[in-house]
Amino acid sequence: MKESFECGREDDKIQPNIWLPEGVLPGFQEACLDFFWLCREVVMDILRALEVGFDLTEGYLTKFHTQTDNQLRLLHYPSVPTESLEKDEIVRISAHSDYGSITLLFQDDIGGLEIEDPKKPGSFKPATPVPGSMIVNAGDCMARWSNDIIRSTVHRVRAPPNLQTKDGMTPERYSIPYFCSSNFDDVVDCLPGTFSDEKPKKYEPISGGEYFMKRLATAY
Ligand SMILES: O=C(O)CCC(=O)C(=O)O
Ligand SMILES: [Fe+2]
């Protein structure tokens, strides 16, 4: 159970941004867009680091992200009875991996975010909030691209561990994921060096947009 506000680049014709009426929350739109473009700089730096790590030519990954088909999501999980969260009667967010290449995730200090152990499917560990930190998750598109050398992170949000409250309520929680996707028009194929005769490609080439739409269709 959650509520969210989402925005992307201002010139996106397919999913245009919907802002609050003029005068409501002055500065909100500017703050969102400033943060959107700041996060873009950060993901581009991470992509450049991956180019080095994969021994790719400079710009190999960033040139797939020039259209900035990215999404900033402001999430609010309302306060709910802890027992309902523990019994899965109320779900904050169920286990999933993100679709795109990279997600930046900012969380407040409430906790409850959990990451699946890739070696033990079904076993989750808390991603304990660290003040001033940012989590970087790999998405399914990155897993595809890297022929599964980088695995996408399965994560969920449940009741924070060891929470003691007088009223039995889990406090509200805020988080901000920033989803970075490759250009919808460009075809993503396994990166050079990630496949060989012994380790063939696990995935067919697909355009960023087609992949995104396929994933949306299965999610809704
Ligand atoms: O709230 C969180 O920490 C995670 C949110 C998330 O995983 C998502 O929106 O995809
Ligand atoms: Fe997620």
From TrEMBL:
Coiled coil: none annotated. Gene3D superfamilies: B-lactam Antibiotic, Isopenicillin N Synthase, Chain. The keyword Transmembrane does not apply. Residues 68-182 form the Fe2OG dioxygenase domain. Transmembrane segments: none annotated. Keywords: Iron, Metal-binding, Oxidoreductase. One of its GO terms (molecular function) is oxidoreductase activity. InterPro entries: IPNS-like_FE2OG_OXY (IPR044861), IPNS-like_sf (IPR027443), Iron_ascorbate_oxido_reductase (IPR050231), Oxoglu/Fe-dep_dioxygenase_dom (IPR005123). Signal peptide: none annotated. It holds the Pfam family 2OG-FeII_Oxy. The keyword Iron applies. Belongs to the iron/ascorbate-dependent oxidoreductase family. This is Clavaminate synthase-like protein. It comes from Dendrothele bispora (strain CBS 962.96).
